[in-house]
Amino acid sequence: MLHDDQIAADRDSVRETGDEAEDEAVYLAAFARIEADPSSELFVLTDADGTLVGTLQFNVLPGLSRRGSDRAQLEAVRIDSARRGGGLGSQFIGWALEEARRRGCGHVQLTSDARRVDARRFYERLGFVASHVGMKREL
User: What are the pLDDT tens digits along the chain (139 aa)?
Assistant: First the structure.
């Protein structure tokens, strides 16, 4: 699902090494790091037939601000493009919000590429507010 749209496909494209096993190993290593980190989990959403329809990486970050409250960071939120618009994304995010509350997080944060206008509208409908300016620097 990471390659399901052009923005992610450009950013996460499989390297043109000609060695698919090498490219796959990069992602398998990332899955292993997530699995080994007790503060990070990758959740998948499947339909009744067991078909993968969504993903969400859930990280709990300890914080000093907001009276030392933990925060949940959502990453890699994806719904299969053929299944969008049917409420799955809203339900998945709703579940993540409840999971964050259950874990004692004070708030939930996420980022969305500035070019993803529809995604930003989706998150705003769910109550997210663009309260901060995010910055990134490639290393």
Answer: 565 665 555 555 555 556 677 778 888 898 899 999 999 999 999 999 999 999 999 999 998 887 878 999 999 999 998 899 999 999 999 999 999 999 999 999 998 888 889 999 999 999 999 988 888 888 9
